[in-house]
Amino acid sequence: MSNTKYKALVLGSTGLIGNETLHLLLNNNKYEVVYAISRKELDIENEKLVNIIADFDTIDTKLKDVHIDHFYCCIGSTKSKTPIKADYYKIDLEYPEKVATILFQNGCNTICLVSSIGADTASNNFYLRLKGDVENVITNIGFESTHIFRPSLLLGARRDFRLLERIGQVIYPIVDTLFVGKLKDYKGIKASIVASAMINSALKNNKGVHIYQTQQIKELA
């Protein structure tokens, strides 16, 4: 068994999947240092945690001397929080692209990106088109290992209120049994499962571009 210790960074550490990922990384003995980017100081005490306080305009300087192995990109906004499409793109696409590019140039070899089921650059749906664009941008950076996760409805307790997701979580137990065969990828999935699958994928060190739908994510976890 390898005794290699890794360094990781989480972008979007206060979000549903990002928060789960951060805690799993801090409790995983394969990781010796875990960086987390946030706009405000995180309320977490852990000797492995390095909290980087930054935003889009200051992140360049803060990451200048940061060298990691695995980048977990879990950031994502909502239409209610960012109604202006240009701002939405800045948070969901430009920010991850900037961070990923810096980390790649600093030697990072693996990225795990949280996308969405249905992500497609040709979609008429703004959100799905945006997620497709993010996937393309990240893939083109050139990481040795690129893992893209396309979960369906995320289950878990968010800090922020999202009406559609809250409604979905309420009716999920009722309609979940209807998703069979090819529709299984549309079943709800716990954020903790997505987080676990990302970490397991990163630790396998499989090179190339890999895309995982809901059922594959559950199997990886």
Summarize the model shown:
By secondary structure, the chain is α/β, with parallel strands linked by helices. It has 7 helices and 9 strands; from the N terminus they run E-H-E-E-H-E-H-E-H-E-E-H-E-H-E-H. The two termini are 20 Å apart.
Note poorly predicted spans. none
How far do the termini sit from each other? 20 Å
Q: Any idea of the CATH class? A: Alpha Beta
CATH homology superfamily name: NAD(P)-binding Rossmann-like Domain
Largest sheet: 7 strands, parallel
CATH topology annotation: Rossmann fold
**Helicity level:** 25-40%
Name the average pLDDT.
Answer: 90
CATH architecture: 3-Layer(aba) Sandwich
Summed up, the domain count is 1
> Helix count?
7
Could you state the order of secondary-structure elements as H and E?
Answer: EHEEHEHEHEEHEHEH
The gross shape turns out to be globular
Give a description of the structure.
The protein is of the alpha/beta class and 221 residues long. Helices cover 38% and strands 20% of the residues. The protein has helices at residues 16-26, 59-62, 85-105, 126-139, 163-175, 191-204, 214-220, and strands spanning 6-11, 31-38, 49-53, 70-73, 110-114, 145-150, 154-155, 189-190, 208-213. The radius of gyration is 17 Å and the shape is globular. The model has no long low-confidence stretch (mean pLDDT 90). The protein is built from 7 helices and 9 strands. Helix 1 packs across helix 6 and helix 6 packs across helix 7. Helix 5 (163-175) links the parallel strand 7 and strand 8 (189-190). It has one domain: Rossmann fold (3-Layer(aba) Sandwich). Strands 3-2-1-4-5-6-9 form a 7-stranded parallel β-sheet, with helices on both faces. Strands 7-8 form a two-stranded parallel ribbon.
